[in-house]
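Justification of computing resources. Each target in the renewal requires a structure prediction run like the one illustrated here; the chain below, 606 residues long, is used simply to show the kind of job we budget for.
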Amino acid sequence: MELNKIEKHSVLSNIFFYFKIWIKVYPQYVLLLVLSIPSGVISTYSELLIPKLIINGIENNLTMQSILKPLLIISLLMIMTNCISNFISFKLMAKGTMAKSYLNSDMILKKLFNLNYEKLVDSEIQNKIAKVKEIISEGDSGTMHQFGNNLVVFFTSIFGIIFFAFNIIKIDIVLLIIIILTAIINSLYGLWANKYQFKNISIKSIDSKKTNYILSVSKKRDFFKDIKIYKMENWLTENFNIYKNNWSNFVLKSENVRLGSLSINALMIFIRDIFSYIYLINKLLTNEISISYFVFMLGLVIAFSNWINNLISKINDLISFSININHIRDFLDLKEDNFFIGVSPKIENDAPSIEFKNISYKYPGSSDFIFKSFNLKIPAKEKLAIVGINGSGKTTLMLLLMGLLEPTEGNILIDGYDCRKFNKLDYYKLFSPVFQDITIFPESIISNISGSLRYDKSKIEKAIYDSGMNEFISSLPEKENTFLLKTSKENAIDLSGGQNQKLLLARSLYKNAKINILDEPTAALDPIAESYLYEKYNSMSKNKTSIFISHRLASTKFCDRIILMEHGQILEEGTHDELLLKNSKYKEMFEIQSQYYKDGGVHLEI
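Resulting structure tokens:
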């Protein structure tokens, strides 16, 4: 998997990429883009014509009616084009979320779902995902949300420059060159200033995140105990001041660059205006132009400079936009995994056998093997416990078994079928795991259990009852339709640690797969609660092949067989009683844990 080589897309390619998304979600955008160009140019030009018409009428002693008639037409034209421009700008701001939402849900989210687990946990891809998340979370002022308007202003500015240039060149090409030069110098410095800000924004954001984190931690009740007992106040305050000073220094440098930009802007405007005034006054005094034309040309010069500034500004915005899109397309260009490739062997047994055959595995980018020529047979219907300290390879072994990780070498057989040859979607159906991590979605209890909008009501009720959640759910006003996670919705609830574990158990029971896996999901529970949950799960796993993982040895003593793992190898195996009789590592660990729980006031039946 080559991840170091990032394919770069040009600014034009990235603009076209996102432009197609805009058209897909909002086809009327093309019409608005076409309408906006003449509307923007005519609106500005009409505004300049109004004072010219009035002064020209006074100069030529025209009647009020003669002045008002063309003035009314131009004013109506200006109002109409202004309304069109404002309508388009408002519409594009409102629609900016649509394109970003489509990119996020229909492209980025689908890409995530179509990558296998091994890629998703790779550190480099994790960095790509983090960057994409940061870009997508930009608000209304972000370059992606502003894309529609920026493109409109970009093209309008180009046509405005061309149209106004033809009017200025009628007076003198020298005037046009001076205006263009001052505008370009001003805009180029602004472009450099923006690049400077963009280049150093990450430095500012790091220190800003650290200061915000310290502030948030200091306000959370859960952290009060640690802060008070360990007297962290001075340490946190000192770190906060360091990060704040770093951030302040960056802001100061940014302000200096911004001040320089404003100074250059003022200087260029001064040079442009002085030259324009001198040039046009000379034309006026030599009777080459009238006063009305003098006023019109001054307005034309300022508007022309604004078109150039707008163009350079939007080029800068589109470059920033392209940098963000490059990160997103870099992620989207990752090779997807086809989960439909492979066969679907008929596993007839409700409790299939499992065999790890000469398995070796190392994580991508690592030279250290977690497993080397590992072998293990699990007969059908066996209740197997895998125990050992954290980091012994227990969870990695289960990830390999479930097809979330691919063995570097060797094979995993399910009832004699090589798991590599399975269709992944069908292969995943073989397992009902309960993982260490608690994954609760901001949906109803029933949706969290079924994982779908469509479900079997009788199966849901049985899973709720068997998991021990029935009494709790019955006490809720909305029963199983109660929403979870308070931050997601009004009247939603948060479950306790034990209730979360039961919900995950209900999810596993509802799936009712052929192989059950309990992967240390009770780390937050006390030993007695853990033992109770394991034995409850065991009683509900009759006639199934089941694997129980724990670092607490007493929780799995009911199993048919226990294997003790360390550094990816099996040190000992047997029943709980057999392992105690061996008087070796297992017994030593068991006695230490038992004594610890007794000393701590927790008594286990041993």
